[in-house]
Protein 1
Amino acid sequence: MQEVISDRIFGGFTTILVLIYKTHGFVSKTMNRRQLLRYFCVVTPTIAATAATYSLQSRLLAAHNGSKVLWDYFGKKGAKNWGKLSPQFLTCRLGQSQSPINLTSAISASIPNLQFNYNPSTLRIFNNGHTIGVNYDNGSMLTLNGETYELIQFHFHHPSEHTVDNKSYSMELHLIHKSKRGFIAVVGVFLKQGNYNQLLESLWQMMPYQESKEVRFPYITINAQDLIPQSERVYMYYGSLTTPPCSENIYWIVFQEPLEISTDQIQQFAGIFPMNARPVQELNSRFLLQSSSHQY
């Protein structure tokens, strides 16, 4: 029930945004910084905070009850049926602000600069049966529009979950951040087939092929800063987790510039997870923003 309430709160606010957009005649699909901050970055978090509280309570309740609903990307427990597997997963079926999406026809906007202050971390890698991920040491921050988010972990999907003009990339990296107020921001980075990626070497060498808990390598350090593209041009929108319980009110930032990864590296990951990407979801009444061409 909490997840459904969350959807209604945020969905209603999104409708208001669309009415404002149409009323004020932003037909040029361009928003300046003042409009962006007013309609997207300032008012929205107030509404999202209420919705996020319901979402957090739902997840904590599930953890308290010790429930673990099995899900997959294929078959009866696949993405099309997530919302039917458990009441905890209703948002996967009923949510109106779901991720991933097809990144197309975005509104050009003056987006606040992203400030990444990542520190090196001990390699703490895991295979949770759905992806390969890394839990990150405390103290690495992303600052956006005055809000600071701490990097918690990052993981990979094959192929990419988001598409650009209906085209997929070979893989996609998700860096998960959380603020002290409980807001979640996810940074997405596309990985395209190309040159060997030396930055991922230590991860790929230690990649667990079987489902396992976190494995710590105290003498190996990584720096997620190396996984951030040089270009600051991004897409931004409000969406959801791309895995159950598909909780909404997630701040998504997806870099337009992809990093390269070799065919061998892609095949190594695909040998463990041939496909761990949720299909794209409808944008519905949400804004999809992209950095203005003159911004950087």
Protein 2
Amino acid sequence: MGKFATLFLVISLCVTLAEGLSIVGHSQRCLCDGKLYNLIPSRNIRKVEMFPQTPRCYNVEIVITMKTGKRWCLNPKAQRVRAVLGKFSMKRDFKHNY
């Protein structure tokens, strides 16, 4: 095999591996890969954060931090979640991560 053919195969292999890793790593960039909650008592919420879609994660993500320090992912399509967001958007502890 010539030098050109060997170089071509090595470059092709590197490109293929790089593309495969970006597809595999896609879900690792989302914060909310597990269960999405539809309702959390608002009196226990310390902070609400909203993360928009990105090239690595195609989901809009809403993450709340409870007073106990636990973090929960909320379902952005749930009507009750929208009500909680409306309540917190008037306060300073609502953070858009745009």
Protein 3
Amino acid sequence: PERYLLKLNKEYKLPIIILRLAPVYSKDFLRNVKRRVLIGRDMFFYKVGSGKQKISLCSRDNVIDVVEACIESKVPFGEVFNIADDKVYSFNDLSNYFRKLIGNRITIKIPKFMLYFGVKFLSLIFSSKKERLLSIYCKLTKNNIYSIEKAMKYLKYNPKWNFENTILKDRKIFEDDKKNI
């Protein structure tokens, strides 16, 4: 789809800008983040290997800000920009954020080799799902970091939002309100 859109831009001079988003989250939508650290209807935390794998995420508020910037400013058409929070998160960071939100839970530690063999075994049984299973394995064991330097340079993108001020701020406000009641 990106190549097709860039071709349209080039051939027909259509004003197309492609925003490639890191997994998006908001106060009301945490599924993309939760599934990387919680299982069993949020009953257990889990981590693969050390949990130090890093991931880029993107607050919905940063998406809104960058779309507004694209509309309001002179942005070069026919370009692709990665959009993410300024902060890169480890899976351990994400687990700690969720502990603040939902309380502590048992953490199940899964060695990488066990996940690898599990994925290989399931790929033999469900051969049509092999690519999907390998994708999940990579998402849980490898770093997935988006460089936002190009967006910062050309779009003047300066992400103000991160997990703390998007998600945890409301919890802090709620806790402060409870103290004042």
Protein 4
Amino acid sequence: MPPLIIWALGVVGAVALARLIAREARRINAELHPAAPAPVDGEAVTLERDPKTGVYRPK
């Protein structure tokens, strides 16, 4: 029975370590890549292609 207990403790430790690593990864990603503000309705500008240069410009 002792090998089963050691195996169970190893599994519990591995799960705890995986949760710790996942939480830390989410924290670091949130710090490095803050959420972009949501686009506001009405801010979108219609673009029109300039036939001479091929560049898109606001209408």
